[in-house]
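By convention, the token line describes the chain's fold. To illustrate:
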Amino acid sequence: MGEDKCERLDPVTVKQAAEELNETSKTRKNALKELRHWLKAQRHLQNVRTDHSFLVRFLRFQKFNLESTKTVFDKYIHMRQHHSEWFQNLDIQEPKMRDIMSSGYLIVLPERDANGRRVIFSRACSVDVSKFTACDIMRAHILTYEALLTDEETQVKGITYVFDERNINLSHISIWSPSDISKAFSCCEKAMPIRHQEIHFVHLPWTMSLVFAFGKSLLSKKLSERFQTHSNFEKLSKEFDSSILPEGYGGTVSLEDMTNSWIQELEDCREEILDLDRMKYGLKKGSEAKRKTSVNSAQKKNKPENSGILNMVKSVRKMENRTSESA
């Protein structure tokens, strides 16, 4: 099961974990013991990892609240099982995955930001919507999350995002169905044990304002308040050290070199990520039926109607047409 220590964490990060996550050697040791004891009694959670690095990411995500940790852990395994098209066989050597990662759409920068966090950098216009689906995009994001979570410092400090939204248009939005959008936001915020700290959007077209507002509405108030928009990268540089970004964005290292560096990181943790597929979520038919009824009820109550999405897309299209006519 591995040592219940934080040997990989430097003193500064250990202090941060104590102050922000209620983590001490004693709380960690006791929580891991209780969590492992609980897992033994959960027969529906099969072949789950019980090593230190895997379990502690859930405890840190929930600031060592054991009951909340159990809920997220169960939800994570359930999500992997029932949305296997997103979570299973996340293989950087699979041609389509390799292709989307090589496109420069989504990378993690080699250097950390001023707060010691890894930074996810994304260029929406790099996605070829004639080649990639919403499922392909989500798989790339989840592979990235799983790779980042293998690092204990990232478990503590969380991640920062920088999204370059230049040249994004309706075609990039229309590949997402309403259910995909709801599922994606629920998965990223509530089922993946990763701390989303700063979220920067740069060059967001005004015609996408409705879509942006809709996306924020699906998130908790706490997370949605971390969204920041910047008209250009010069404005971003006032709040973010742009020297760690790719060349052309304020840095000196080419996007191609950064992309290759991130792909190598994915290669390095490939086996560990693929091994996650061994974990299974099984329930008796009665319990599964009860769960599905509960989920369907919640979806009917909370999920946006298709007509609402269509109206929003029509509004965006009208704004784009007006912009084109006046140009």
Remarks:
- The radius of gyration is 20 Å.
- The chain has one domain: 1-327.
- The longest helix spans residues 306-326.
- The chain has 17 helices and seven strands.
